Amino acid sequence: MPFTRFVDESHKYWCPKWYWPFAVCTRTERVEQWCYDFAWLEVTSYVFVSYNKGCENGTLFTWYTFCWLLVGTANYPGGQMCFDSPRTNSGRCAR
């Protein structure tokens, strides 16, 4: 089962001052992430979109991501991955 954690993320933004119109400031906010311990990952890329599959404790999770000019399928060993939103449960793992 995925677990949640809170992390501090920093974002830079333009904040012009009267004495320096090109000033850049930093804002930090606390965000919740959903983390998974995948046993394996499979990524299938279709030029601009990748379809990702990951298996955690016998449960298959799937999601889409943006990619740039990639085509094909790659398999990766497992590991911990964290996301800003929960992944879709797609049933049981086939392998």
Question: Would you kindly provide a written description of the structure presented here, covering whatever features stand out?
Answer:
Helix content is 0%, strand content 79%. It has a four-stranded antiparallel β-sheet, with no helix packed on it. It is mainly beta and 95 residues long. The chain has one domain.
Identify low-pLDDT runs.
none
Instruction: Figure out the total of helices.
Output: 0
Q: Helicity level, as a percent range?
A: under 10%
Strand tally, please? Answer: 4
Shape: elongated
Helix-strand topology string: EEEE
Radius of gyration: 18 Å
Annotate the secondary structure layout.
Blueprint: E1 3-14, E2 24-56, E3 59-83, E4 88-92
Antiparallel strand pairs: 1-2, 2-3, 3-4
In short:
It is built from no helices and four strands. By secondary structure, the protein is mostly beta strands.
Attribute tags:
0% helix; 4 strands; 95 residues; elongated; mainly beta; four-stranded antiparallel β-sheet
